[in-house]
Amino acid sequence: MPNYKIIVEYDGTDFFGWQFQAAHRTVQGELEKAIRKLNKGKLVRVHGAGRTDSGVHARRQVVNFEIEKLWKAGKLQNALNGNLADDVFVHFCEIVPDDFHSRYNATRRTYRYYCHKGKSVIDRRYVWHVPWDISVHKLRLCARTIVGDHDFTTFIKFNQDQENRRCIVYQSEWIKRGDFVIFTVEANRFLQHLIRYLVGIMMEVAKGNLTVNDFNTLLEAQDPRTKIYKAPACGLFLEEVRYE
User: Fold this and answer.
1) Among 110, 128, 175, 223, whose Cα sits 20 to 30 Å from the Cα of 181?
2) What residues does 6 pair with on adjacent strands?
């Protein structure tokens, strides 16, 4: 069967995350429902490069699936979009080699987290409103600390069955753009809630509740019992997935 790769954008606000749940609306579930209509009612399982949490958005999620009928890529893309709701859209479609897997073949993933100083009604579904005085300089110092190969046990939703809690971070930086403060992070992999925990604790440092040294100590501690503030999901976007 032909293996198709699609690039999907979605607004995660009304989804219970990426992964299929029988009782809830998910991105995977919506895509599989659309494909089922094109496949004579037969289920086709789709695979995403990143399992985004409930409320998290994506600009360029990479998805692959196999379907019995051979479609022209453009026609399949249009057919999918014709059966998807307004908060999901397929931007690209192509046939790829049989051994391509959107998740396991990915080498780097880039996420951005958007904070907005003050209040914005228009952007309320896509940013974390931070009404406090914050130090962007301290945010940047924290961000530099996580570049490299680290065990992120302190900053994830702990699962004792997960043996490997290391990620290689290639890029980690904060930029200020008007009223927005944006965190960009690129790594080989991300663990559950990692970015939201990192942003949450970095913001505590930026507010003056903790120091940069405190942040470094938490990273080195690798302690799953540590209670850490988690930033809201609405500000997080999967921006890009790379294959090398």
Assistant:
1) 223
2) 63, 93
Burial label for 97, CB within 10 Å (0-12, 13-18, 19+), is exposed
Tokens of 180: 């927005």
Domains of the chain, first to last: 3-96 (3.30.70.580), 108-242 (3.30.70.660)
Concatenated DSSP letters of 118-140: S--STTTTTSEEE-S---HHHHH
208-243 b/e (C-beta count within 10 Å ≥ 16 → b): eebebeebeebbeeeeeeeeeeebebbbbbbbbbee
- Widest Cα–Cα separation across the chain: 59
**Backbone dihedral region of 199: left (phi > 0), alpha (psi from -120 to 50 degrees) or beta?**
alpha
- Indicate if the pLDDT at residue 200 is higher than 80: yes
Q: CA 95 to CA 113: how far, in whole Å?
A: 32
Catalytic option among 11, 14, 53, 214: 53
pLDDT at 201 (0 to 100): 96
Which is nearest to 50 in space by CA: 126, 87, 101?
101
With cut-offs at 50, 70 and 90, classify the pLDDT of residue 186: very high
Look up 223 and say whether it is catalytic: no
